[in-house]
Structures are given as C-alpha cells and as structure tokens.
TrEMBL record:
Keywords: ATP-binding, Chloroplast, Nucleotide-binding, Nucleotidyltransferase, Plastid, Transferase, Transit peptide. Residues 222-443 form the Sulphate adenylyltransferase catalytic domain. Residues 50-212 form the ATP-sulfurylase PUA-like domain. It catalyses: sulfate + ATP + H(+) = adenosine 5'-phosphosulfate + diphosphate. Belongs to the sulfate adenylyltransferase family. Residues 24-37 have a biased composition (Polar residues). GO terms for biological process: sulfate assimilation. It is an enzyme of class 2 (transferase). This is sulfate adenylyltransferase.
Amino acid sequence: MSTVFPKPTSFISQPLTKPHKSDSITTSVSFPSNPRNRSLRTSRVRAGLIDPDGGKLLDLVVSEPRRREKKHEAADLPKVRLTAIDLQWMHVLSEGWASPLRGFMRESEFLQTLHFNLLNLDDGSVVNMSVPIVLAIDDQQKALIGESKRVALVGSDDNPIAILNDIEIYKHPKEERIARTWGTTVPGLPYVEEAITNAGNWLIGGDLEVLEPVKYNDGLDRFRLSPFELRKELEKRGADAVFAFQLRNPVHNGHALLMTDTRRRLLEMGYKNPILLLHPLGGFTKADDVPLSWRMKQHEKVLEDGVLDPETTVVSIFPSPMLYAGPTEVQWHAKARINAGANFYIVGRDPAGMGHPVEKRDLYDADHGKKVLSMAPGLERLNILPFRVAAYDKTQGKMAFFDPSRAQDFLFISGTKMRALAKNRENPPDGFMCPGGWKVLVDYYDSLTLAGSTRIPEKIPV
C-alpha cells in the first residue's frame, strides 16, 4: 500500500535539456570523471523505470513453501543474535535495496566499499556502494561458530529469522571503518556510539536467506514498500520518470516547493507523468530527531491539506538506518533509490550531515554532498538534481526561492529554529508549514513534556 503527498518540488541548479521527440530523453548530467575537468556528460535516459543495479533486483526472502524447511535447518545452526540496527540492515538486504549485494559483506566487499565506495561485478562493471553493510560478532560468538559454514541469525527472543550461508569471519577494523566512513574519529558520532564502539571485534559475512518478510508491527508496515512493490506501484501509475526525495524531518512548504518545481521542470522536458517518491528514512536516527511515527503523521497531514498531490506522489518508508556520514552516506541513499526505480534524485544542502559533535560548526561542507553525487562512480545512470535555496519570503507570506538581489525580504528558518518554535508552542510565519502538519509537530513536543515531567519546559532560544 502506498501513500501520496501533494505536488513535489525541487531546485535544479544545472540545466536540463528538453527531450527529442522519440521514446528516449536526453538529459545533461554533470559527471566529471576527473575532478579537474567539469565538462558535462550527456546521457540518454529511457522514459520509464531505471534498471536496478547489476541488472536484477534481488529478493532474499525464502519463498513461502520452503520456510518451514529452512526454519528446521536454522534450529540446528550456531546462533548470532541481531541488534535492532542489525535487523534494519537485514531488512535492507532482504528486499534488494543494496542489490546486487546478497548478504552481509565478506571482507573483499567490505574493503572495496571502505576504500573505493563501489563493488566490482563479475562482468567488469561497477556499482556504487559507499557504506559498509556488515555484521559484528564478539570472541565468544566466534568460538561458538567454530568451523561451521552457516549460522542462524536470531532476534531478541532467540527465534531464527535468517540463515547466513558460506560465511567468512574477519577482523573488524573499527578505527579504520569509522575514519573512512565519517572522515573523522571524533567522539560523539551517533551511529558509531550506537552500533560500532561496543560491537564485537570480528565481522561475519555471507549469503543471506531471510525466513520471513521483516515486519515491525508498529502500525507503519503498510508504508514499508519493498523495491519490488514500489516498482509495481510506479508502473501501475504509468510513471515515465521517478524523482526521489529523502528526508528525516517534517515536511515544510519549502520542501513542497522544491518537489513541485521539480515535477514542473520534468514536464517541461517532455515527460508525461513524473511521479514523486517521498521516502522518509525509517531506521535508526539520533535522539533529537523527530521519531518516525510522528513524522508519518505529519506527512499524512501534508497530503490531507493538499500541499502535495496524492495522484503524483508515492509515500513509502526507507528502512535503512541513518549514519550521519554526509557525502559518503548520500551516495548510499541515492544508489538505493535506483533499485526502487528512481532515475532522478533530489539533493539539498548538507545531505546526511549533522552538527559537529564537539565544535560549533557543521561536520561536513554543506555543498560537498551534491558535488560528490555528480562525480560518484556507479551513479552515472542517476540524474542528480541539486536544488536552489528556499526561504520564507516576507513580502509574499510564503516559501519561495531565495533572491539574493532582495535578501532583506527573506527569512531563513532552520530545522533547529523550527524545532525550537514547536517546543515553545510558538507558531511559525503563515505559509511556512500547513497548519495540520505544524499541529502534529507541536503535539510531539508536548508529548515529551507530559512523558518526562508535568513542569512546563523552559523557553528554547529561537
């Protein structure tokens, strides 16, 4: 089942050429193979859904007739218990978001990802893969596995949920992994503290067989469409272009402007039915991010209030954890959407970034994410759409594209400011966010106050 949001918008900072009158469309895409040579490469983009990486979308869930047999097999195997984040990565792998990866990474795949941000395929081609998808075990688990070539992966209740075949166990170079993925080993990186620092000193990789589709039973499973299901929905809607927008924050009218403008530009190029994939991240996020359930409530209000068009928007949850690894991670976000059928990807300021955990600055340069995407190996088939800056236009009383010639007319409302207003139960300027969506955000922060204390919280500086 999919959900729809009103009309999409995105800012396109590089020119898009109009299509020729044929069954394919020509688009100018910046892809400098040499960073010193920024000439545009013209690529021909087929109208319709893009092929998945490696040419085949993987489904690693065991077919229903074989599940009982596989569960019996798993019962006799050494067991590895998964953490909540491990389960999220298993979910990602099982549905083919990381195709052509067939399971948790073996050492060769881990090293290619860590050092090259890609995987080499048997036919000599490469696909982008910028973040390691690995499973850590400790010394005791390694000893229990012994010489076995297979292990059962179990949940918190110790019931088997998957089998890992033809396993390989190798050292977990934590410091190198952190340094190469985040570009720093500074303390306070949320994902590192949650999933790496106290993880085992070994990694185990192999081919994955997931015994049943992953379900969370949190009332949101209907939004968790697999790449297969998304492709089916997009084909049902007759999409001839799919543009993806990832977010981990509530949708405001500036986001909607970006998405709507993108659709307008694609129509001008000659596409007949471009569809927006509004794709909130559903895995691990840091403590001060708005939780998924509240974000989904807010997104629903955005649709109900007509800010986005349900007929041209598919809303689905992307199951990946969030690493906050900036330009390295944004490549993963873009690559995964290829496997869901997207041939356009909207990227904004500081994608997958965060504030520096120690110093008062951003951890990454705000422009590096979009620049890296335009050069990343293995993403040549994906059209990257960097957007212009949106801000609140005080003269019009709405979100609009920033015009530097009249900068005094614009008000910038950051995510930090937005959260502060909601916590203080103060309203943003009219036109910043739809009223229903804003109420959800205020209700969320009210719920924190009620859960933690009856005392009214102190004002938060805006």
